[in-house]
Amino acid sequence: MLLLTLLGTTATFANTLVSTSPISGSTLSVSPTSVTVTGQLPLLPEANEISVTGPNGVRVDDGTITVNDVSATVGLSPLTESGFYTVSYLLYAEADAPLEGSYRFKYQAPSTIAPQTPDPQPTQTQAPASSSWATNIFVIFLLLMAVAVTVGLSLYARKLFNNR
C-alpha cells in the first residue's frame, strides 16, 4: 500500500502539457507572432527546444526561446503561406523527465484584396431655401394666437381666484 502511495505521488508531479498558444487544431486567419507551450512544472531556463515548421517543411520560428516559469515561447516570422504548421517541443523541468510532443494548427492566409479606385461623382449644389411671405405671416399669426390664449387663460384663472 505504501508503494502505491509513493508511485501515485511521483506521478502527480510529472510535467504535463497544460496549454498551447495557438491552440492545438485551431484555424487562424491572423499570423501569430509567437508560439507558447505551457507545462505544469517550472522549466529550466536554458534547456528547452521549440521549433515551428510550415506546410512546406521549412522552419518559420526565429529560434529565440523565452522561458517564463512554466511557459516557453518562441518567436515567429510573419506567416504568409496557408496550410498546417507543426509545433515540436522538448521542455525540461528540474528533476523530471523531458516533456516532448508536437501539435498542429492551421493558418489561413488572407486573400489579396485589390483596392478599388474611387469614381468621383460631381455633386449638385442646392440653392438655399428662400422663405415666402405666406410662411412668415402664418408663423406670426400662430404667435399672436398663443399670446391671446395665454392672456385669456390668465384672466379666467384670476376670475376663478377672485370668486373663492
**Fraction of residues in helix:** 25-40%
β-strand percent reads 25-35%
Order of helices and strands: HEEEEEEEEH
Compute the number of strand runs: 8
Shape: elongated
Distance between the termini: 104 Å
* Tally of helical segments: 2
Please list the strands of the largest sheet in the order they lie side by side. 1-3-6-5
**Low-confidence runs of at least 5 consecutive residues:** 1-11
What's the overall average pLDDT, rounded?
86
Which secondary-structure class do the elements indicate? alpha+beta
- Class of the largest domain in CATH? Mainly Beta
Please describe the biggest sheet, giving its number of strands, its sense, and whether it closes into a barrel: 4 strands, antiparallel
| CATH-defined topology of the largest domain | Immunoglobulin-like
**What would you call the quaternary organization?**
single chain
Provide the descriptors you would attach to this structure in a database record.
164 residues, Immunoglobulin-like, 2 domains, 4-stranded mixed β-sheet, 8 strands
Fold and architecture overview:
The chain is elongated, with a radius of gyration of 39 Å. The chain folds into two domains: 2-107, Immunoglobulin-like; 134-164. By secondary structure, it is of the alpha+beta class. The chain has two helices and eight strands. The strands form two sheets. A four-stranded antiparallel beta sheet has the order 1-3-6-5, with no helix packed on it. It has helices spanning 2-12, 133-162, and strands at residues 17-21, 27-28, 34-39, 49-53, 61-68, 71-76, 83-91, 99-107.
